[in-house]
Batch of 2 targets.
Target 1
Amino acid sequence: MGMLADMFAGHHKECDDLFAAAEAAAQDGAWDKAAPLWERYAAAMERHLSTEEGVLFPAFEDASGMRGGPTQVMRMEHTQMRGLLQQAGQAVAARDADGFGGACETLNILMQQHNMKEENILYPMCDRAVGSNAALVQQLREKLGK
Amino acid sequence: MIGALSFEQAPPLWVPLRFFLTAPWFLCAAGLLLAVDGAHVVAGGRWGPGAVAAVHLVTAGYMLQVMAGALLQFMPVAAGANVWRPRLTGGVAHAGFTAGGAALVAGFLWVGVPALQAATVLMGGAGAFYVVVLARGLAASPAIGPTLRGLRFAVFGLAVTVALGVALASVFGFGVALPLAELVPVHAAWGLAGWALTLLAAVAWLVVPMFQLTPPYPPRFAFAFPLAVCGVVLGWTAAVFLRTPAVAIAVAAAGTLVVGAFGGATLRLQGQRKRRVTDATLECWRAGMAALCAAAVLFPIPLAVTDAALRGRLEWLAGVLVLGAFVAVIQGMLHKIVPFLVWLHLRSVMAVPPTMQKVLPDARARPQSRLLLASILVLALAAAWPPLAHLGGVLLAVAAAWGGALLVGAARFHHRLAQSPSASPDDTGRSAR
Ligand SMILES: [Fe+2]
Ligand SMILES: [Fe+2]
């Protein structure tokens, strides 16, 4: 795997772990634990999404000249993910187990199929286009907090 | 090549949905056939017209419909492979597979030569067209990974299956002289392993970790698996045509190891899942993988049994377990895919669409899939006492129709909200669990 694919796929996994922990806490009815776990997860996701949108995608678009294609679809899916993150966050606050479970299930599938497209297709393309740019790689690493 | 990559999230909802809405009625028909004639079908062995018809209702009817529809959805997302004009491709394949599947079964049951001729042309034509469209998309894909590789093997397997099926149907339909006794087991191996199992595995590499957050399959295993399956199927083909029973048994035993490794690996990964939530989909996967492992153990045994009656019973058992494994997993996948697609498409008409659980609550999906699993178990037990096949058939028909009704409900849920997105989801007469 390329450097960027490695770094971003690794961060997907970190986010997955936080997601699973928050979901499990809510399933146990441990809302006192679930709420801060969810907050940590939502913050990690926001960091991930905004690093892609603000740094990785623009660098890829500049290098490849592809503006309307893959990155456009990824940005659209980010918007959808933010909607569900918010929906689930409200359910955590209201201790609404069904609402939270429903939002989590939908978010998980949306997020996983999104990640899979990035990991299998977009990140390898990014690696080919801008993976050798050491300054960019360093900047991305810092923004992801890795 | 990269320029051709649209990265589209999804074709129109109707493209895969028409396949999903049709498929359960083929499964239901298989159940009805067994309900009426079950004990007779078990006793008649795999060459009896009832058994051949029932097998094709499940495979060329149910399984092919769902797999063909799901691939049109799955290819762009999972493999970055664009499907040529998805609406047209979906329409042609759906029409051909539906009419061809019905004609095929009618031909078997009532030994109708014109029906078999029609089936040859329809299944052969739609199959060839569909294979070419998929192969073109897969060839142009810039993606990497074992799923894309698995899909390429699977589509090759489908091409061989369709070609052999056309050859076989031509024997009956057009009186072409071909070696039936050899072609039948080879056609079955390519269809079930070269196509269906290879496709199931390629999908599993992605969805098993994705739904439950399990560790990934070992990359070398995922890489080698389609090759190993292809090797076993080629070995089987050679052993059958060379008429070397000892080699056939050895190849079947190799099949036991390869298939068992897949089933076992999947069960192990699901045991290590990070998400603690369980649902109908997970139950279906686990039951399906257990059935697949049990079937794998049975592969070589009937080949070594000389008593015809006992061999027939063992073949029935192995057949029910193999087909039951696919039917179970497919049902589990439908319970996830369809609500997700409804959510995805509603997302374009409303900001906060109702979540998947509102489209198809687990509390509705679970009893249906449990009844389906029970019907497979009863059909398997009919190997010991054939009259049970009648009961198994009734349960299968009811579970399949129930599954079909749940899908119609999901489609109507989408339709209502897409028409008037301002209506609250609770106005639709459904509530969350
Ligand atoms: Fe992303
Ligand atoms: Fe990402």
Target 2
Amino acid sequence: MAEHLLEVSNLKKYFPTKDGILYAVDDVSFAVDKGETLGLVGESGCGKSTTGRAILRLHEPTAGTVLFKGDDIVRYSKKQLKEIRKDMQIVFQDPYSSLNPRMDVRHLIEVSLEINGVHDANERLERVKEVMDVVGLEQRLLNSYPHELDGGRRQRVGIARALILNPSFIVMDEPVSALDVCIQAQILNLLMKLQEKRGYAYLFISHNLSVVKHISDRIAVMYLGKIVEMSTYDELFRNPLHPYTKALLASIPIPKLNRKRDKLILSGDVPSPINPPPGCRFRGRCPYAKQICGEAEPVLRKVGDTQVACHLYD
Amino acid sequence: MENSTILEIKDLSVSYTSSNKEIKAVRGLDLAIRQGETLGLVGETGAGKTTTALSVLRILPEVSSSIKSGEIMFEGRDILTLSRKEMREIRGRDIAMIFQDPMTSLDPVMTVGRQIEEMISLHTDCDKKELRSRAEAMLEVVGIRKDRFDDYPHQFSGGMKQRVGIAIALSCNPKLLIADEPTTALDVTIQAQVLNLMNQLKEKYRTAMILITHDLGVVAEICSSVAIMYAGQIVEYGSIEQIYGNHMHPYTEGLFDSIPDIEEEKSELKVIDGLPPDPSALPAGCSFSPRCPYATDRCGESCPDDVQVEPGHIVKCILAGKK
Ligand SMILES: Nc1ncnc2c1ncn2[C@@H]1O[C@H](COP(=O)(O)OP(=O)(O)O)[C@@H](O)[C@H]1O
Ligand SMILES: Nc1ncnc2c1ncn2[C@@H]1O[C@H](COP(=O)(O)OP(=O)(O)O)[C@@H](O)[C@H]1O
Ligand code: SF4
Ligand SMILES: [Mg+2]
Ligand SMILES: [Mg+2]
């Protein structure tokens, strides 16, 4: 079988808290290929960001393997990690809090070049200008500070920083969630164009299903630390299998009139990831729960072209 | 029209002063809302939506803001000329507000039940027992068990806090409810719950509502009319059918095109280039003209008039009805 660019297996990230262990990411597996976008969706707190960070070892995984180009980077030393980080980058949701307010655009973008041994200042500047072009930042902004930029441009700086070392894999953690729809559309188009030109692979994290559908090739749906369904973007929307996926899709407000949708409105809130309920973690909100759902944890299995973790498909 | 007009805003202009610059947040805004109507006030960040809402309730920041012109007629009186005391009576009793962050209106050190009681007692005379039962009933109306009466806000999730905010807002059965991005901070499944609740309450109480949002999907679920705001002005106004079925302003068109369509095969999104203007340095003529794909020389010269393209459908664009 061909090797994936990234292959995550049985990834876990638990946080010790004063109330007990918090199961933020609990046994998650997926792969991403070159040039592909895997969308990761789910409601706040379900473990999307933690997954993205654990892959880059910005959080140390509690367990699991992360094969990148065939090598398990969970075992990497600090030095090896630094080397591989050139090739694996991240863009954050809030470009403001992730950018040093005392650095201007030029320095924000070029730091990673410096760290990675590009010592010639002229070469660095050239590369900064080049990547600014690529992400659509005007050269006149070279010496602007983050607070002088609007949200869309700040996010372009965040993207430029991630791109300057020409990585092959980028975690996009809610990169458009803080932006107004018009700017969001500009950035989405940019990300897709870049991918087409340069073959980047994205793990695209978002709570916005319309955005995720738009940009992804495949989509994984997370609930309380677990992937409950994974499928191609069109199959997931045409034929959602997991009750949670169905509810999520039914909840999306669609900007059209007279939608006759089966409104599956969930009751209750997401339970705490500290002592998640036994069996299926969705059981308390699931309209189809059966006895077995409280007893055994459903595992992700193949049903048609989809992978789903739900006892309805046993 | 059989339903009477509850609120009518005429030619409202509001500015802020910041670093000696005049920020023209709202410019010559006209708006009317009738009993039972739900108006969606839609626009991007900075369009002037919140400023409009704060003006109606007269809770603009006192030092930095000033109302430059206009009238806000509510039940035959101009809100802008009322005394503070008269305004206090109207707030909560006749006009109530829900905020994006429910903690804006919740007191962290008071039980939620007590907070509902306070609102009711501010505007009615009822004894302790009746107060308690009305507050409990209000909790149940928004789907919170009354045994949570004595819990504090921090013991509730985001969605539940917003329900409490709704309970407080509706506790005096106001004639007008202004909800400023009430579901923006909530997850989609929780948003669906809250919207569903608001839809039910709207039918039950026939409260007129102004729903402020940037989300055209939310508007489609709940509103009967829509006003699209851009740079402090309403650029298009009409019934929900007119705006969703036959929008005519180039900005409205751009807004709809920017949203990825979940029901269509994907294609490149049509985008509006550029950004909304700086409200302290507005362009001449139509404020949208620097970004408008249809702009002609005339658009940069004078601000377009409101054109009524069909009954109730108003478009601020010189091309209105001609494209
Ligand atoms: N550093 C941390 N320490 C303790 N708990 C954390 C930490 N980071 C995240 N969490 C918890 O892990 C869970 C998953 O969080 P996160 O991955 O940020 O979710 P998402 O990105 O899907 O909103 C949440 O319950 C969150 O509170
Ligand atoms: N207290 C304030 N001082 C100065 N400017 C303000 C203040 N509040 C809002 N503004 C400005 O007024 C404009 C309209 O803001 P707002 O009414 O909050 O818009 P919206 O709610 O549509 O996002 C924006 O340019 C905003 O920056
Ligand atoms: S396993 Fe059971 S409780 Fe969980 S989603 Fe499926 S039917 Fe519902
Ligand atoms: Mg996150
Ligand atoms: Mg606002």
